[in-house]
Amino acid sequence: AYKRFSELLPKEERDNACSARVPKSRILMLPELRANPFQHRICHVFSTSDDGDDSMSFEDFLDMLSVFSDSATSDIKSHYAFRIFDFDDDGTLDRKDLEQLVNCLTGQGEESQLSTAEMEQLIENILEESDIDKDGTINLSEFQHVVSHSPDFARYGRFQR
Predict the structure, then answer these.
(1) What is the pLDDT of residues 53-87, one digit of tens each?
(2) What is the span of the domain harbouring residue 132?
(3) What is the dihedral angle through the alpha carbons of 70, 71, 74, 75, rounded to the nearest 10 degrees?
(4) Which of 6, 52, 75, 135 has the fewest CB atoms found within 10 Å of its own CB?
(5) Contact of 94 with 137, CB cutoff 8 Å
(6) 140-148 and 116-130 helices cross at what angle (nearest 10)?
(7) Sorted alphabetically, which keywords does the UniProt record give (predicted)?
(8) Is residue 6 domain-shared with residue 34, that is, in the same domain?
């Protein structure tokens, strides 16, 4: 992990990798993130930058790798997946978050974008299945409940090389 992190730094900063921050643009060059539709959210969620630039420290990088590793529990994976899908960082997945989530998964292109009616129906279906307390949003415990019934979740929530 240290070697991979230091390779993202300019040569002159590699000796001080433990105290350096890698810019988001360099993190996004990782093959594991390059094609990930949530790459920007992943950087945002794992970055502890005070500048809001989503740069990462070595500790941030380790946190990201550990969450996406095979050894992370499904509770840890689902917690971070929830945070990644919570686009407005308000602690719930509302209709707007779900729309952004679907758009990330289907792509933003004209040919792949859902119609307004299709999007509305899909969001209704997601809320019907996931919103246990029927408040119109999905909280972390509701999300984890749904994920716990999805055997594919842990298998696909990995940071593959």
Answers:
(1) 999 999 999 999 999 999 999 899 999 999 999 99
(2) 74-157
(3) -140
(4) 52
(5) yes
(6) 90
(7) Calcium, Magnesium, Metal-binding, Repeat
(8) yes
